[in-house]
Write a structure and sequence with these properties.
Length: 222
């Protein structure tokens, strides 16, 4: 009888230990990071990102690529459309505007700008598995910073050349400045002029500067 009682107590103890382990596993799984379910529809695949090498170049939409803006390149989505990109590895999402074509690497579905990639936490690894789908809210409800424009008059590897051009511009107008950026392992000194809140105002200013013989590019303000 004593042996039966001892066996029952050991069995009860083992059952209690098993239940404790199950409860612990459940708590740990609940405490871990959760990936938010993506919105219905869309694509699931690999995203990559692009930045300094293409910063300042023309996109497929005709805009100048600015790696600090929330944009993306896609092969088929309409240019100008907005989508929500969710990093399925950490659950972070961002809403981006498609203004370019790509990516041109097999197996990838979207190229994010540096700013968008940073927002979803994939800059360091370079690629991530994502969901690309329609927005939960219309673009008109998104909070965006006011758009601004500037004029780029020159870009140089030697800073002294940028300083010389800035001096020439200062004799004609105020508001010129030198912006430094690293791209492809090299540092460029860009001579820029003004900050304009409308594209039309920037276009008029560009025509005035060009009349003095300068080559002017209208760009988004960094």
């Amino acid at each position: 009888m004593e042996g039966v009682r001892s066996y029952a107590l050991r069995r009860q103890g083992l059952l209690g230990l098993a239940w404790g382990i199950l409860v612990l596993l459940f708590v740990v799984s609940c405490a871990g990071p959760r990936v938010r379910p993506p919105v219905a529809g869309g694509q699931v695949g690999i995203a990559s990102w692009y930045g300094p090498k293409f910063h300042g170049r023309r996109t497929a939409s005709g805009e100048v690529f600015n790696m600090h803006q929330l944009t993306a390149a896609h092969r088929t989505l309409p240019l100008g459309s907005w989508v929500q990109v969710t990093n399925l590895e950490n659950g972070r999402s961002i809403q981006v505007r498609v203004n370019d074509r790509g990516p041109f690497v097999a197996g990838r579905i979207i190229d994010l700008s540096y700013a968008a990639a940073r927002a979803v936490g994939m800059v360091r690894q370079g690629v991530a598995r994502v969901h690309v789908g329609p927005l939960r809210a219309s673009p008109s409800r998104l909070v965006r910073s006011p758009r601004a424009y500037t004029l780029q008059v020159g870009s140089f590897l030697e800073r002294r050349n940028a300083v010389e051009l800035k001096t020439r511009l200062d004799a004609l107008s105020s508001g010129s400045y030198i912006s430094k950026i690293s791209s492809g392992g090299e540092t460029f000194y860009r001579v820029r002029l003004g900050r304009y809140t409308s594209r039309e105002a920037a276009r008029r200013a560009a025509m005035q500067v060009a009349a003095y013989g300068f080559t002017v590019i209208l760009m988004d303000q960094d």
